[in-house]
Amino acid sequence: MVTAEHVSERRLSIPNNPITGVLLAIPAYFAGLWLGTLFGLNDDANTGIILGYTFATVAFLIGVGFLNYPLERLFGWRVSPISDPEENRGIGRFFRLSLDHKVIGMQYLVTILIMLLFGGIGAMLIRSSLLSPDSSITPPGQYIMLIGLHSVMMIFITSAVIVGPFGNYLVPLMIGARRMAFPRLEALSFWLVPPAAVILAAAAFWGGFPTGWTGYPPLSEQAGQGMDSYIVGFALIGLALIVSGINMLATIITLRAPGMTWTRLPIFVWGIFTTSILGMLAAPVLAVALVQLAMDRTVQTSFFLSANGGSNYLWQNLFWFFGHPEVYIFILPAFGIIMEIVPHFARKPLWGYRTGVVGLFGVALLSWFVWQHHLFVSGIAPVLRPFYMLSTELISIPTGIIFLVTLGTLWRARVWFTVPMLFCMGFLFNFLIGGISGVYLSDVPTDVTLHGSYFSMAHFHYTIMGGEIFALMAACYYWLPKMTGKMLSATIGRVHFWWMFIAFNSTFFPLFIAGILNMPRRVSSYDPALQGLNTWVTISAYFLFGSMILFAGNVIYSLFFSARPALANPWHARSLEWQLPTPVPAYNFERVPMIVGGPYDYGVPNARPVADLGGLVGVTGGG
Predict the structure, then answer these.
(1) Which CATH number do you get for residue 392?
(2) What is the predicted pLDDT for the residue at 341?
């Protein structure tokens, strides 16, 4: 006879790992494909593939282990602990479902860097295609497929490239918490990313999608099955943004250590906080638009088909209502990184801390009022152009505030020019060019002239790659010693910075000139008079890609071949994460700390240490 006590000790014994997930996903895909066709979810362009992708994703998540907890609770079996010290040992912890925010942060980092590699290879193929002005290297149909896959893959990456690795790993450490508020949601936000990347890559087998990353109808309505990969892959990333945003906000609001008042919160955490608000509110709009597009393609609704009463403009408004807050989902955490790192190496308090927080919230608020500047050339409601021109120009004010806060911190400082600090300076230079070029594109007359040209593309890459990716590099060199226990080579890092900085500007600044000379983007043929300029850009792009290979080599060498371990606090920084030992213990803090000082009180007379690490156990409320 089995007693209740015996039942409570049972645990689910299904092997849960990515291999199990893949083995379940393959038959689930074909089951969804068959069921979709059976119920008529098909036309000339579609055979139920959307349902197949959906079934495969759910089966993959079940195989990884997301069904365990509901079943354990349902049958009264012993529930897996939220944080098990045993799971922090061995490399295997990075290849299974983990509820440790530090493991999830490392899983994110490796996955994002691999995706960045493939996105970079796509960029190299695009630039190689432009060595000739007559489409002789890559046929036009293949070229637009390259553009679409590269752009959406990079949008995937930049949506999560900072919040995923560094937000998940560092936020609990920086606020004095032992874990995230919802560890299972945190794990879900990561495990949605691999199937999204695979589904997007599968578009290549279906001929890609001809719309670029924007997915505009009617072209997206008429596209082949590669468009379904776009729909499902993008929807999964949107879902990851939603659950990540909810989890981050709940963690920062409810799990701050005693004494961690809002005015003592590290500025990087404020960057994650504002980013999470945008992700939580903007991604549902994208999800709804993608569901409508999927229904148009499968069950013959007409949300975006004007011939049947729908509107192409509806998609453009829904997409860009998500898409322009999305741009600031990219850059707000980068602002947080720069304002976080600069005070530590300037050895000065962050100048205008509260002003910097206001700047972050100002960018987040105004990002909701600018989306129609993408529709200036569409012909829709010309009377609205002055408002959106004004709102787009106004967003430069809080952005400028963030710049002033950073420059005020650097003013008359004796700066320690470490590798992270070099990348911060590179960010300021690049983003300044991107911001100034954005002011031109916010004005209707110049936007009408330059829209769809390489000027617009160069502006976007200066703000995202020149901004966010440089901030990512700063974060890697700054925080990887804490995350991995190994110092990256400073010598290789300095070579990497100057190589990347020069190659980046040599690649993208000439594209402003190409745009002014009317070279259109997303087109594989161009005026032969511009071939010399494109050859220069392509060679520079090869060098830029080489700098990223050097970074990858630095990481691999430092982690696996260098015997130089990282000190617990190699930068002598005040912020809370650097007061912990390296590697960070499984539960972060043996006792929840009492916060008694600010993270940037350098040179302040009688400044107290940031925390009393002998605080009370179990106290998790914020001040």
Answers:
(1) 1.20.210.10
(2) 97
Torsion of CA 30, 234, 159, 461, to 10 degrees: 120
Q: How many domains does the chain have?
A: 1
From CA 301, how far away is CA 20, in angstroms rounded? 37
The two structure tokens encoding residue 618:
């179990």
- How far is it, in rounded angstroms, from Cα 563 to Cα 607? 36
Specify if 401 maps to a domain: yes
State yes or no: pLDDT of 11 exceeds 60: no
Q: Supply the DSSP symbol for 556.
A: H
- Report whether 331 contacts 435 (CB < 8 A): no
CA 524 vs. chain centroid, Å, equals: 28
Task: Check: CB of residue 602 under 8 Å from CB of residue 593.
Answer: no
Residue at 276 is within a domain:
yes
With beta carbons less than 8 A apart as the criterion, state whether 365 and 498 touch: no
Compute the distance between CA of residue 623 and CA of residue 257 in angstroms, rounded to an integer: 8
Q: How far apart (Å, rounded) are the C-alpha atoms in residues 203 and 194?
A: 15
CA distance 572 to 330: 29
- List the domain range (segments joined by +) for residue 186: 81-560
Residue 453's DSSP bridge partners are 520
Q: How far apart are CA 176 and CA 446, in angstroms?
A: 49
At 562, is the pLDDT very low, low, confident or very high (cuts 50, 70, 90)? confident
Tell me if 365 sits within 8 A of 397, measured CB to CB.
no
Whether 191 is in a domain gets the answer yes
278: Cβ–Cβ under 8 A, 6 or more apart, which residues? 245, 325, 326, 328, 329, 332, 364, 367
Indicate the helix (H) or strand (E) that contains 329: helix 312-346
- Flag the least confident range among 5-19, 430-444, 478-492: 5-19
Whole-angstrom Cα distance, residue 203 to residue 205? 5
pLDDT value at residue 379: 80
Partners of residue 486 on adjacent β-strands: 565
Rg (the chain; Cα; Å): 25
SS3 255: coil
CB 159 within 8 A of CB 472: no
What is d(CA 319, CA 322) in angstroms, rounded to the nearest whole number? 5
The two tokens of residue 79 are: 């529930």
pLDDT tens digits for range 270-287: 999 999 999 999 999 999
User: pTM value?
Assistant: 0.93
CA 53 – CA 44 distance, rounded (Å): 18
Q: 61 is written with which tokens?
A: 């998540």
Closest CA to 251 of 329, 188, 171, 323: 171
Alpha-carbon distance of 341 to 427, in angstroms, equals 12
Residue 423 lies in a domain: yes
Q: What is the pLDDT of residues 200-240, one digit of tens each?
A: 999 988 888 888 888 899 888 888 888 999 999 999 999 99
**Selection from 110, 96, 189 nearest residue 480 by Cα:** 110
